[in-house]
Amino acid sequence: GENVEQHPSTLSVQEGDSAVIKCTYSDSASNYFPWYKQELGKRPQLIIDIRSNVGEKKDQRIAVTLNKTAKHFSLHITETQPEDSAVYFCAASMRGSSNTGKLIFGQGTTLQVKP
Amino acid sequence: DGGITQSPKYLFRKEGQNVTLSCEQNLNHDAMYWYRQDPGQGLRLIYYSQIVNDFQKGDIAEGYSVSREKKESFPLTVTSAQKNPTAFYLCASRGRGNQPQHFGDGTRLSIL
User: Which of B53, B79, B80, B106 has the most C-beta neighbours closer than 10 Å?
Assistant: First the structure.
């Protein structure tokens, strides 16, 4: 069935370094890819999203890249800060989701930024 | 995301008891969703609704039920048939067109 794999499951970086989280998806019909940040005990918050008609999108220190051929998409965080520490989830839209909005979520990456 | 309200924040269920989790939104969103989150795992879809009086099962609907009598409200009932209900439950909503889902603050359900 439809699936989203996310790696790594944990990531530890030094403050100021870059962090990269990668996801692969199985459904070639997926056309929408959001990323959410979830702090401990809080709601997931949308931080950036990308649609299949573009290959890259940036928002300040955050960027997302999409390779439709390989069915990969990645989150890049530059100049990491301690407040970036959280769990990050990728997601991909499911076939037919233009009406339903259904998403499949990756398993999550726990990012720790050490001061 | 302040327009999506989940209550209560914490809930305890006794054996054999049904409990209902509330989700209300004032964003005029058509679509609403319920997810279950277990420690160290991603979000799994329980039920979703695109319009009033209509809803569909997600990937893990067994032991759960929902209703959508009003556009603003999408309550989730965890029935006694759900043998492992301990989890963090998240409600989300989405506007029309190609809009992202936005989440409420969640309800943490535990067994007494």
Answer: B106
Q: Is B33 on the interface with A (CB under 8 A)?
A: yes
The per-residue b/e assignment along B30-39, b for 16 or more CB within 10 angstroms, e otherwise, is bbbbbbbbee
Closest-CA residue of A relative to B100 is A34
Q: What residues in A contact B106, CB-CB < 8 Å?
A: 41-43
Provide the pairing of β-strand B43-51 with B54-57. Answer: antiparallel
- A34 lies within 8 A of chain B by CB: yes
Q: Vertex B89, ends A24 and A62: CA angle to 5°? A: 40
The Cα–Cα gap between A95 and A91 comes to 13
CA A12 to chain B, closest CA, distance in angstroms equals 16
Structure tokens at A27: 């459904």
Q: Does A99 touch chain B (CB under 8 A)?
A: yes
Which token pair is B1? 């995301």
Distance between CA atoms of residues A12 and B81, nearest Å:
40
